[in-house]
Amino acid sequence: MLASKCPICGEKLSIDKVEKLLKGGNDVAVTKVTAGVCKKCGEILYEAETANKFDEIREKLRKGDTKGLRLLGKCYAM
Question: In this structure, is residue 35 part of a structural domain?
Fold first, then answer.
């Protein structure tokens, strides 16, 4: 269960859908999750179950396992 107040500034958190980028190896996954968001300072808090899912996705990416993920495009760096 999420805290009701921001641990940084003490303002009330609102529950919103947020987009999270997860990097593992050379790959990145994009996921939308529900999180507590502070409208004052921008702090984002995730439930423990959500944070654990992030770790699982990062580990899959590190291993090159993209089964169940949809390719969105390509990213290039210089």
Answer: yes
Within a domain: residue 68? Answer: no
Query: 39 lies in which domain range?
Result: 13-62
Strands 13-24 and 44-45 come out as: unpaired
Cβ contact 15:36 at 8 Å = yes
Question: What is the count of structural domains for the chain?
Answer: 1
Within a domain: residue 69? no
pTM of the model: 0.83
First-last CA distance in the chain? 42
pLDDT tens digit string along 6-33?
999 999 999 999 999 999 988 899 999 9
16 contacts 35 by C-beta, under 8 angstroms = yes
Q: What is the 3-state secondary structure (H, E, C) of 20-73?
A: EEEEECCEEEEEEEEEEEECCCCCEECCHHHHHHHHHHHHHHHCCCCCCCCCCC
